[in-house]
Amino acid sequence: MKFILQGEYSTLNEYSDAERMHYRYGAAIKKAETQRAALELKPQWDGTEVTKSYFKFTWYRKNRRTDPGNIAFSEKFILDGMQEAGIIPNDGWKQVKGYIHDFEVDKDSPRVEIELISIYELECPFCGYYGD
Fold it and tell me: What pLDDT, on the 0 to 100 scale, is given for residue 115?
């Protein structure tokens, strides 16, 4: 299952700066980014139930001026948006096996591509899949 979110999301530095000014500014960023993700994700979802998965994020940014850890912080907004859209019931241990992050530059089309890779789709030479 794959999703594409257009544009760039707030970075950790932007969020932290807002929190330092006033906690409500940080809360406003979280709310806006979560709703933005939910609105873009819901129409792309085909209704398939999400099992325990790896979440692979490919972050396409306009340039390399922001460090990857600062960018990846936005995964929380996106996962909360997935919950709000009804795609995942929770972003806890039962749904999330792990995260994979790739970073690319696309100055004309910044975006985030999210691919959900179920642990049951992965082959293990000993057991057939990587399960619990």
Answer: 95
